[in-house]
Amino acid sequence: MAFEALAGINGDLITTSWIASKKAYQTERYHKEEAGTVVIFAFRPSFTAEDLFAPANISSFGEIKMNRVQFPCMRKIGKGDEATVNEAFLRNLEVIIDPRTSFYASVEMSVGSRKQIVFTGHSSGGATAILATVWYLEKYFIRNPNVYPEPRCVTFGAPLVGDSIFSHALGRENWSRFFVNFVTRFDIVPRIMLARKASIEQTLPHVLGQLDPTNPSFQESDQRITEFYTTVMRDTSTVANQAFCELTGSAEAFLETLSSFLELSPYRPAGTFVFSTEKRLVAVNNSDAILQMLFYTSQASDEQEWSLIPVRSIRDHHSYEELVQSMGMKLFNHLDLHQFLLDGQNSIGSWLNELGVSTRGRQYVLAALEEEKKRVENQKKIENKWPQIVKELSWIENEYKPKCQAHKNGYYDSFKVSNEENDFKANVKRAQLAGIFDEVLGLSKKGQLPDEFEGGRDWIELATRYRRLIEPLDIANYHRHLKNEDTGPYMKRGRPNRYIYAQRGYEHIILKPQGRIAEDVFWNKVNGLNLGLKQEIQEILKKSGSECGSCFWAEVEELKGKPYEEVEVRVKTLEGMLGGWITAGEVDDKEIFLEGSTFRKWWITLPENHKLHSPLREHMMDEIRAT
Amino acid sequence: MESSSSSLKCSALGKLVLSSGLLHSSWSKISEIHKSPYSNQDSGLGIKIYREEKFTLVVFVAPPIFTSSSDSTLLPGKENENPFPFLCSENNPSFSLHTPAFKLFTSAYKSLTYLKSELLQTLESEKPVIITGASLGGSVASLYTLWLLDTIDPKLKRPLCITFGSPLIGDVSLQQILENSVRNSCFLHVVAAQTRIRMDFFKPFGTFLICFDSRCVCIEDPVAVTELLNGVHDSEQVDYGQVLRRLDQSMLSMADSRLIPEAVIKGMEERAEMKTLRFDMFKKLNDMKISMAYIEWYKKKCRDVKIGYYDRFKTQLAFPSKEFDIKIKNHKIELNRYWKSVVEEVEKKPQSDISILKRRFLFSGNNYRRMIEPLDIAEYYLEGRKEYRTSGRSRQYVMLEKWFGMEPIEKERRKNRDLSDLLTFDSCFWAEVEESLIVINQLNTTVGVRDDAREVLLTRKLVEFEEYVWEMIRKREVSPEIFLEKSSFMKWWKEYKKIKGFNSPPSYFTEFMNTGKYKSYGQSQ
Q1: What is the DSSP string of A601-621?
Q2: B440 and B499 in contact (C-beta within 8 Å)?
Q3: Where are the transmembrane segments (chain A) (predicted)?
Q4: Distance (Å, rounded) from C-alpha A224 to C-alpha B482?
Q5: Confidence (pLDDT) at A34
């Protein structure tokens, strides 16, 4: 058995996790176990309805957005929207991770001794384990991935916890590999969260009673269980089919209209799922494929089997013991893109067959892999454009900028008047680069790139270089054509999304190790300038060019035409930010202080009293002395 | 084994529609009305509204169809004769509707108008609306939905029209109009597979759910729908309640058989492939910006040697010398080709969809028109042709100007703004100059007997041009480049001055020119 392929999880660890998970049944919240250099935390599952759907939550699936201060990585970087998770599970985690708990102290201790932590649990205990792992990753691991050991999360028949952004964020940070979820074929629990709360509310308490392993009174045949199973699977079918149509882009407009009438579960599989057949274990990490499998592995092959499945859907929730015991004898296979590219649908088809997936169902799973293949190909296409991007940027850096500087007004001002042939050349390059970055943006918005792409350090660094170098040209262009008069300020109406996304990517990798978010950092800095009442200042600076270094020129252009008294706060903010931007490389100090620069010319006109106390005074004086 | 992705998608969408429960909700209300003792008593249209928890249902009930009628009513694009003028596109200015459905629709026009405002309120409160009906009732429901869609803010949820075994309502023109509109996504027609629908005159639009025994597929491709359902209409009534029950029973089971003939699938796939290859106007917009940058640079370089880019282009066309000039010609061809395709795409769309076009796109188009059309004019007059504005303009310019004019843009132009990069508002300005030069030529080459009447006529034309130019100067809507030394406009002015002589009374314009005020026109003050 090649379990090592599961990112450092071996058979022993799984067995130990399962045993710990069982022990947790009898605890109040969790059970802790040490095995050599590994510490295992197993969480107690709950079988009451209010621990599955938070009672006060009025949304159709009991979901809630994750707090971005506490979980800064759990969102889409570019668009900025946070991941959604089940509120009941999140509340449960919050109780457990309270700094006053023994759990918190234990984790601190393990972290202190650099021991590897495994979070585990059966049923909803697994959901807690997943969120606890995310919490650990955000609180400890990102601060210093070289020092803190990688966590592991092993769940048995856990319900789904988060939405597609949750799964995307884990993929982007390369954390998906830490999560392994075991699912026995008919187990209903991993599918429950795909059903609408309202449709299962009536039967849920009864079914949960049946699912509880500590409950001795298990009934064989039960109408309520059949009803529950049918409802869950019907909704699972809706979600799986809708997701499939969306993924493959069929009938987009009609699908959109139709979907607006549907209540669709937001929850999606995250991490690796391990399905079990008689002979083998099949590991799948493609979230779309897993979703299809959750539906198709639970279908009956004939009428007779059909009537037995509802009961099996309960019983299989109790059969993880057998799964763990028989693991050693089974083959282990990866149902992934690699295998798909290796021999098409041959092996994958036969594994799915063993899992009871119909011919049609197999095609859905394969189509999901086909889409993954397209995402990888899209990434390659973009990577092929890197040399061109680098070439154009280098020309701007090494040719254009120095030549403009020689004219003492910098490339911003040169481009703004565009009287030289080089300005024209730069304009063509600007348009070419915009084409490439807009294409990437389009793919990223539609989810047509691998999850890891958005977080890739190399790409973010290239995009940052692009943003710092070229955005000033876009701003110059905007003001050359007087679009600020026609359409409104650049920051409000003109800033292209390709720069906004690039800025967020940059902020993400800079702030990630500190566990902070950009908005807080910005307002902290502003507050540090002591310019007045916090709320008033926030209102004044909303969507101002001081938000980002590469928008420096946009702010200068906005302030330039206005009387000082009107914009005093904005002027002072800009000056206050400038030092940091220069140090970080956001703004080029060789450019902005040049004699012919719009910035310098404007700054000179500011009231004497302001200039006297300005932090830029020295800079400006230096330049004067130098010339 | 069917391995094609198209058939997979059709069946996934079919299952989704089925498991959504929307068909059941609609049908149960329809059958409720049909069963009630009051139905079918009169021959008019019945409408009933159900306000459910999650959505509002509007059910249309019409008298049964006794004969399969294929009468059609032609609706011209004019507002007073057509309740759907907003649907007409430049390409399809009129279309025909199924007469029985249209008659029922117009007969209840008053109550439908009332219903419309009611439903708009519902939609604004974010509650989705389903409009449904069986048989002829479904046809009227479709018509009503089309009508309703015009007034719905694109930001709101779109309503969904669900019909059961309904006759088709529109001809090939309506089909083409809707094919290019997002409205097409608001129609779901449920049809039992054994049903045959006459498609010789009326054509399908929207999405079809075709129900086989225990399976169903959802198809949007109208050709495939026609291939599957076209035939002589049989009068056998289908009980859709039963159809839905049968489908329901097998929803969670595994059986999955081939439903659509391989040949139909193949055709669908080919058409889908073609669609992806179709012109993507947004993707190429950045490339076009590069071409525009070239021409902008060209314009600037020309100005440096005191000749406008219009006149430079005209001379260079006659005597091509530099590579740069040839490049400019190619960029112009590229740009023309692109915008011609864009305009063609847009013209397929219903009128009311055009306003949805993104602003950025409309502005780019306007920029293109003002920048490039002068070059087309140069080419035109160089070839010795006349009357460009009325007989020489390419369609894309006419349409772009029209659409730009329709957009309510309130511009606040600063009085003292520097106009050196301004593009003349009227992109046909140079054609007017050329026409005026021709008039001067005619005046100067009068041979033989003087013809006073002709002379007066020609002179009046010149004065009209003067007034036209002065108006633009006054409004600061013309580029200062027209005053460059070697420009055709200045050539015109020199001749005009001679003709006018010193005897005619001075005008604002002649004073502006004679005193040299024009030299500072457009400079920031």
Answers
A1: HHHHTS-HHHHHH-TTHHHHH
A2: yes
A3: none
A4: 85
A5: 93
Q: Does residue A242 sit at the B interface (CB-CB below 8 Å)?
A: yes
The ipTM assigned to this model is 0.88
Distance in angstroms (rounded) separating the CA atoms of residues B210 and A218: 44
Q: How many CB atoms lie within 10 A of CB A412?
A: 25
Partner residue opposite B157 with nearest CB, options A260, A424, A486: A260
**Token pair of B14 as six digits:** 């079919």
Which amino acid, B162? I
Question: Which residues touch A312 (CB under 8 Å, ≥6 apart)?
Answer: A186
CA distance A70 to B180: 46
Q: Taking Cα atoms as reference points, which of B226, B190, B264 lies closest to residue B27?
A: B190
Task: Measure CB to CB from residue A241 to each of B16, B294, B421 and give the nearest one.
Answer: B16
Considering only CB atoms, B185 lies closest to which of A230, A256, A481, namely A256
- Residues of A that are catalytic: 123, 187, 317
pLDDT, tens digit (0-9, with 9 covering 90-100), for A280-326: 999 999 999 999 999 999 987 777 777 889 999 999 999 999 999 99
Compute the residue count for chain B. Answer: 525
Residue A517 bridge partners (DSSP): none
User: Quick check: B172 pLDDT over 50?
Assistant: yes
Q: List all residues of chain A from 418 to 477 with a beta carbon under 8 Å from chain B.
A: 418-419, 421, 424, 427-428, 431-432, 434-435, 438-439
Q: How far apart are CA B494 and CA B508, in angstroms?
A: 17
Average pLDDT over all residues of chain A: 92
If one compares B501 and A570, the residue with the highest pLDDT of the two is A570
Identify the band that residue B1 occupies on the pLDDT scale cut at 50, 70 and 90.
Answer: very low
Task: Categorise residue B462: left if φ over 0, alpha if ψ from -120 to 50, beta otherwise.
Answer: alpha
Contact B206, A257 (CB under 8 A): no
In angstroms, the CA A188 to CA A191 distance is 5
Q: The tokens of B34 are what?
A: 């049909």
CB contact under 8 A, B289 and A434: yes
Q: What is the pLDDT of residues B316-367, one digit of tens each?
A: 877 766 766 778 899 999 999 999 998 888 888 777 676 666 666 788 898 9
Using DSSP, state whether B418 is helix, strand or coil: coil
Beta bridge partners of A32: A41
Q: Check B9 against A306: CB less than 8 A apart.
A: no
